[in-house]
């Protein structure tokens, strides 16, 4: 993969603009997050479908974010997403945000992976080591001893 930040400063500016639009929209106090579903579509850093808001249907989730992404050949050497790297990043989000459920669905293959560590790093280490009950030494306390 190319160094997209060095080779394409336009991409960085476009991502900043996308991030700004999302932050502005979501920080509006009149924007009811749990009462409606929202859809905003970007392509190449530009809004191609303006924000659409519709009321939630009965039984629809009131929380969560779905991000769908496709590599743009203009910025990447290959249209193939490096799945191993993506898996690593998504799993780390679940580890660092205890209680958060992170799901990866590869639409082409139908493969689905999900990570959820209620106790964060402790849960991850317990799973990785095959030890559900970690010794107290490995239980994070929320602070660092120097």
Please explain how this structure is put together.
Strand 1 and strand 2 (46-55) form a beta hairpin. The protein has helices at residues 4-7, 9-27, 83-96, 121-129, and strands at 36-43, 46-55, 101-105, 112-116. The chain has 2 domains: 1-64, no CATH class; 81-133, no CATH class. The protein has 4 helices and 4 strands; from the N terminus they run ααββαββα. The relative contact order is 0.09. It has 146 residues and is of the alpha+beta class. The chain is 32% helix and 19% strand.
Attribute tags:
alpha+beta, about 150 residues, two-stranded antiparallel ribbon, 4 strands
Summarize the structure.
This protein is α+β, with helices and mostly antiparallel strands and 146 residues long. It has helices at 4-7, 9-27, 83-96, 121-129; strands at residues 36-43, 46-55, 101-105, 112-116. Strand 3 (101-105) and strand 4 (112-116) form a beta hairpin.
Question: What proportion strand?
Answer: 15-25%
Task: Please provide the ordered H/E string of secondary-structure elements.
Answer: HHEEHEEH
**Biggest pleated-sheet summary:** 2 strands, antiparallel
Number of domains: 2
What distance separates the N and C termini? 39 Å
Going across the biggest sheet, name each strand in turn. Answer: 1-2
Overall shape: it is: extended
Let me know the average pLDDT: 75
Give the quaternary arrangement of the chains.
Answer: single chain
Indicate the low-confidence ranges by residue numbers.
Answer: 1-12
**Helix-strand makeup class:** alpha+beta
DSSP helix count?
4
The residue fraction in helices comes out at 25-40%
Number of strands: 4
Radius of gyration: 19 Å
